[in-house]
C-alpha cells in the first residue's frame, strides 16, 4: 500500500511539528490497512479527530454558529460517495464511505445525511467546537437575523464577494487566506494497493460562510477524484476549486501521460491563472506522488508498506 496525505493549503501553520506528527501517524495507520478505501478512511479519521485541522473536531463555523462537515471518497472504478452540511458529525469521511457502499447515490446532504450516519453506526451529536474555534466565533459578534442579514457581516469576513468572479480574480489570494484560522485546514488522502486508487477529502468548510454553504469538498471532481490512472485530493478556496473542477483537472493530466508531479504543477498553474485564488493538490499514480500549492504552505505526508 502507498498513501499520500495533506493537512490543507493555507497560511503557515502555528504548530507545524505536532501537525506533521499527526499527519505521519495517519499515513502509517493508512498503509497498514488492507485496501485503499480503508487506508484513506483510517488516515482521514485520525486527522478529523485532531483539533489542529479544519475537519471534524476543529472545523470552521458557518454564519449561524454551527460547524457543518463535508467529505467525499472515490475509487478508480468511479464509484463515489459524499456527504455534506452535517451538524455534529466528526467522521464525515465514514459517512461518505457509507454513501458509496450502501446507497445508489453519490451525495447526501443536511439532516437526512446525519440520520443516515446514525443508521450506519457513525457517531452523531458530537461537539465539534474546540476552545480556539469557540473563542474565535464568540469574538466575531455575528448578527442575529435572517440569512440575508448575515450577508454584509459575513462577506467582510469571508474575504470578498464569492458571487462576483471578477472580485475573486483581483483578490482571490487574500480571500482564501483571510478568513481561515492559520494552520487549520481541510484534510485529504490518496492511496493505492497497486491496482485500485482511492481518494478522500474531509473539511469543516470555510470560516464565516453563509449557513448551508457547500464547498468543493463533497463535489465530485472538485475536492476529490479517482480514475484507473490515479487519484487526487484538493484543498483551498472551495468556490474557486469548484469553478475549475480542480481534482478532475489534475487527474486529467495523469490521463494525458504526465507524471504525478507535473500533473500537480500544471493543475495549480492553471487554477492560479483562471481564478487568481489559492489551492493545493496531492496526486498519486502508479509511479509516485505529486503535490503542488500556491498558498503559503501545505503539509503532506507519504508512506509505503513495500
Ligand atoms: N480549507 C479548505 O480547503 C476549505 C475547503 N476547500 C472548502 O472550501 O470548503
TrEMBL record:
Catalytic activity: L-asparagine + H2O = L-aspartate + NH4(+)
Pfam families: Asparaginase_2 (PF01112)
SUPFAM superfamilies: N-terminal nucleophile aminohydrolases (Ntn hydrolases)
Region (Disordered): 1-30
Molecular function terms from GO: asparaginase activity
Amino-acid positions noted as binding substrate in the UniProt annotation, renumbered to this chain: 213-216, 235-238
GO cellular component: cytoplasm
Active site feature: 186
InterPro entries: Ntn_hydrolases_N, Peptidase_T2
Name this polypeptide is given: Plant-type L-asparaginase
